[in-house]
Design a protein that fits this description.
The chain has 13 helices and 10 strands. With about 280 residues, the protein is of the alpha/beta class. The strands form 2 sheets. It has a 7-stranded mixed beta sheet. Strands 3-5-4 form a 3-stranded antiparallel beta sheet. It has 2 domains: about 5-70, Chemotaxis Receptor Methyltransferase Cher, domain 1 (Orthogonal Bundle); about 80-280, Vaccinia Virus protein VP39 (Rossmann fold). The chain is globular and about 60 Å long. The chain binds S-adenosylmethionine (SAM). S-adenosylmethionine (SAM) binds near residues 20, 74 and 202. It catalyses: L-glutamyl-[protein] + S-adenosyl-L-methionine = [protein]-L-glutamate 5-O-methyl ester + S-adenosyl-L-homocysteine.
């Protein structure tokens, strides 16, 4: 099915409204490649008709299909390595130490915002497990959210093929955190019990998720318009506990997240904390 100008405009506006991903005519190949099957599946004669149908009523399954098809869910275990080294050798030991004198010395909350199929959230859990032997006795809460319901379903299942597990995961983590489930490998019970996943659009309010000690928001804001990106990182700052940390993707920097953040380099990773005035100013 050929994408004409009317269809292009209708799909770009729809995708912007559904998940904030910015598309224009330079992405016509991507729209055709990912949505052509949906045009047929939903009995439409054009992309414009698909967009019109997707807008009918709340929780529309066509809209859900469009989001699942248009999002790029590429991810890896321990993606880029350095953020996880910073977690392991600097951020987690210091947070654990700081928590030890508080009312909840064994409570730690981490948000994998745009978690895709779960590898990022589980890698955070494995990093915690690498340095804290009795994880089961910790109130470790890792919350993974993503706008794609397909991705969130897969993350919640925590089941991966041998090929998926071998992409980026060393033998120690492969044997330490999985059980065999038929031909697949499943994240073990202890780690799964520390992680929960839900569908969330980052461009909508997320205050109900509560406060976090660490937020990973990596390789997603690159798809948003400048004003959406700035607003996202300002709202993330509001969700951080005092002394909390933000990790962004390796190609993302202060230019994208805003000058209100203070960068620090640890173990080759750049991690961010809100500047003192940022929270007081609101
Ligand atoms: C490239 S993946 C990054 C996954 C992981 N954070 C990583 O770095 O490996 C981008 C993810 O962002 C999600 N996404 C795109 N727009 C979103 C939005 N508005 N709200 C929440 N998630 C979104 C996509 O569904 C996709 O799973």
């Amino acid at each position: 099915m050929k994408l004409d100008t009317e269809g292009l405009d209708a799909i770009c506006n729809l995708v912007d409204d559904l998940c904030g991903i910015y598309l224009d005519s330079s992405k016509d190949y991507l729209i055709e490649g990912r949505l052509a099957d949906l045009v047929k599946k939903h009995g439409c004669n054009s992309y414009a008709e698909l967009a019109r149908k997707a807008r009918l009523g709340a929780s529309n399954p066509i809209a859900t299909d469009v989001v699942n098809a248009i999002t790029t869910n590429e991810t890896l275990w321990f993606r880029d390595a350095t953020p996880f080294n910073a977690l392991k050798f600097k951020i987690l030991p210091e947070l654990i130490d700081a928590k030890s004198t508080t009312l909840f010395p064994r409570k730690l909350r981490v948000w994998s915002a745009a978690c895709s199929t779960g590898q990022e959230a589980y890698s955070i859990g494995m990093t915690f497990g690498d340095i804290v032997p009795d994880v089961a006795n910790w109130d470790l809460q890792i919350v993974g959210t993503d706008v794609s319901s397909d991705a969130v379903r897969r993350a919640s299942e925590g089941k991966y093929s041998q090929l998926e597990v071998s992409r980026g995961l060393d033998q120690v983590h492969q044997s330490g955190y999985f059980t065999q489930a038929g031909r697949d490998l499943q994240i073990n019970e202890v780690l799964r019990s520390k992680c929960r996943f839900e569908v969330r659009n980052l461009l909508q309010p997320f205050t109900t998720l509560g406060k976090f000690d660490i937020v990973f928001c990596r390789n997603v804001a690159i798809y948003f318009k400048d004003e959406d990106r700035k607003s996202l990182f300002r709202r993330i700052a509001d969700q951080l506990n005092p002394g909390g940390w933000l990790f962004v993707g390796s190609s993302e920097s202060l230019t994208e997240i805003g000058p209100e953040w203070s960068p620090q380099r640890h173990c080759g990773a750049v991690c961010y904390q809100p500047k003192a005035g940022m929270l007081a100013a609101r």
